[in-house]
Write a structure and sequence with these properties.
This protein is α+β, with helices and mostly antiparallel strands and 580 residues long. 45% of the residues lie in helices and 9% in strands. It is built from 25 helices and 14 strands. The strands form four sheets. The chain has a seven-stranded mixed β-sheet with strand order 1-12-3-7-2-4-6. The chain has a three-stranded antiparallel β-sheet with strand order 10-9-11, sandwiched between helices. A two-stranded parallel ribbon has the order 5-8. Helix 11 packs across helix 14 and helix 14 packs parallel to helix 16. The radius of gyration is 29 Å and the shape is flat.
């Protein structure tokens, strides 16, 4: 291994675009967030070291034996997959990046490309959830001296926002950082500043001069280069050098091994395509390749389903490859089933809870009866409600798999055998303290499961339902509560209870949208006839709905009591009882 002469960032990103730098299959995907990219460029401008890089110089004969991938230029969180390079042996002076992929990709995205990350509080399928953002530098922002803050104001922004902010604010002029690549000589910056209309102050030119020097002149990319062509040595070097920073997970390594050893299908392409497919089912899920790989071990009846290298030896990988079409179909069917129960990424608090269901579908391949669907749904809900069930899951999953395999085929989904086989400490029994805790559940993933359990008459299969606040949150501001005549000392109790289970109900989306921020009594009168109103209140355990905000606490305690009694019935203390 030899230390190479440092090169500039401009030379490094040129190598990326000439495909002289490629990524070996063992590399994980790009995982950085916008603030990390912004901080990297700030560190460069401040003269901070950004660490060394490690390359593997790959001979053409060696390159023919392995898969290599190109760097991402335009990143999209929904499909963060690197394109495969079809002919690596034809690349002169090919260097595979063993350490430094994240930093080099960040530089490439910041200078040449763009990024799409999901905005908070928007559904993944919202067309505005993933705006295209490019890296900008505010040339008019004063430098910050606080070491914890960005000294230079870099920001990944949509083009329209950058232009709008530059126009509206005298203290903002957002310069597209990638444009500095086109400025060959530093003396040309005078013209650049003049064309931007910023020649009246010195700071923009000083800032651009610093940026130009960092990109075009300073030897910043310092690398060690491994020339040995032995892949085992390279793999060991890779594992050692990637033990810090963002940890290299076992699943990353296992995916890499599958890519290298499957010879009938492209494992990386297939697994990523499946992840993309199941993430977009229904309201959308947040699965990753860890889930798919664990499902392969589970469904393929591997003796051990832990993420360990020995479980992905060539013979075992081959057996999984032969079952891939069936495994892929089962995983998709399982997620579709969970979606039909109302679940999505927001409400499915553990993806591992789907693996026993997938195993049952895969090895029994039943046409699910109404009874089976109900048993699967009730078991899934119970397992998601019980705290601690899906942490440290490997022994639990193997025990459940054995119970399913050994139960009689005519039993359908063997909920009794599964719960009996669950190891000590993983029982699905609920004592009264746990039931009390469930009755006080806040608006989170468990709230969905509880409402699915309590009010299973609501049609959630079409994913058009909402969780509604019976007494709207908009009415729970201190000012509105005071205006409604609520005693000031009671206001914290109102605000604390508004987001808890006893004030939540499942409604169809269109119905909920029409409800708005009305008092529940006003909405019920406007929405239903008297008979329908009584029926709705009975179904949803609302009781006598008060006509004013001052009655909220009494309403809350009454409905909480009714919900608790229903939970005692549905979540019997004997975990082997089938709910309902």
């Amino acid at each position: 291994m030899a230390f190479q002469t440092p090169i500039t960032i401009k030379e490094a990103v040129d190598h990326i675009h000439n495909n002289r730098y490629l990524l070996p299959a063992i590399q994980r995907e790009f995982v950085w967030w916008p603030h990390q990219i912004e901080r990297l460029f700030d560190s460069l401008m401040r003269g901070y070291p950004i660490g060394g890089f490690l390359f593997w110089r790959v001979d053409p004969e060696t390159a023919n034996n392995y898969s290599f991938y190109q760097f991402i230029t335009n990143y999209d969180e929904r499909k963060p997959h690197n394109p495969v390079h079809g002919a690596p042996s034809t690349v002169p002076g090919l260097k595979a990046v063993l350490d430094g992929q994240q930093r080099l990709t960040a530089l490439n995205v910041g200078l040449h490309g763009s990024g799409r990350w999901k905005l908070p509080r928007l559904w993944r399928n919202n067309p505005h959830a993933f705006p295209e953002r490019r890296l900008y530098l505010n040339l008019l922002a004063p430098r910050m001296e606080n070491e914890e803050e960005l000294s230079y104001k870099f920001s990944l922004l949509p083009k329209e926002e950058a232009e709008d902010r530059s126009t509206r604010n005298d203290h903002e002029h957002w310069y597209r950082v990638g444009k500095i690549l086109n400025v060959k000589h530093s003396e040309d910056l005078i013209d650049v500043v003049h064309d931007l209309g910023l020649a009246e102050t010195r700071e923009p030119q000083k800032m651009l001069s610093r940026l130009h020097r960092v990109i075009h002149s300073d030897g910043i990319v310092s690398a060690y280069e491994e020339v040995n062509q032995n892949p085992e040595r390279v793999l060991n070097i890779f594992v050692r050098t990637n033990s810090g920073g963002t940890p290299l997970s076992y699943s990353d390594m296992l995916l890499s091994m599958a890519v290298a050893q499957w010879d009938k299908v492209d494992a990386r392409k297939e697994i990523h395509a499946l992840v993309d497919e199941i993430k977009n089912i229904g309201r959308g899920f947040s699965f990753n390749h860890d889930f798919v790989l664990k499902a392969c071990l589970m469904l393929g009846d591997s003796n051990n389903i832990r993420f360990k290298v020995e479980n992905f030896q060539k013979s075992k990988i081959g057996a999984l490859q032969d079952q891939w079409d069936s495994i892929r179909s089962t995983i998709t069917q399982t997620v579709e089933l969970a979606s039909s129960f109302g679940y999505s990424g927001q409400s499915l608090t553990s993806a591992n809870a789907l693996l026993p269901i997938a195993y049952f579908l895969h090895h029994r391949q039943p046409s699910l009866s109404t009874k089976d669907r109900k048993a699967i749904r009730d078991w899934l809900i119970r397992s998601l409600l019980k705290r601690g069930i899906w942490s440290g899951v490997d022994n639990l999953l193997m025990a459940i798999r054995r119970a399913i395999r050994e139960s009689p085929c005519h039993d359908g989904f063997p909920i009794h055998a599964i719960e009996k086989a669950m190891p000590s400490g993983k029982s699905l029994t609920f004592d009264d303290e746990e039931l009390q805790d469930l009755a006080d559940t806040a608006y989170d993933g468990r709230a969905y499961s509880l409402l699915f359990l309590l009010y299973d008459f609501v049609d959630v299969a079409a994913n058009r339902f909402h969780i509604d606040h019976v007494f709207p949150r908009a009415l729970m501001t201190p000012a509105r509560l005071k205006k409604a005549g609520v005693n000031e000392e009671e206001i914290p109790e109102y605000r604390e209870r508004v987001n808890r289970l006893a004030n939540l109900q499942l409604l169809e989306g269109s119905t909920n949208s029409a409800k708005g921020a009305k008092l529940p009594s006003d909405w019920l009168r406007a929405q239903y006839s008297k008979e329908e109103r009584l029926h709705h209140c009975h179904l949803h355990d609302l009781g006598d709905v008060p006509t004013a905000m001052k009655g909220f606490l009494g309403f809350y305690e009454g409905r909480r009591h009714r919900i608790l009694e229903k939970l005692r019935h549905k979540l019997a203390s004997d975990g082997t009882e089938n709910p309902n």
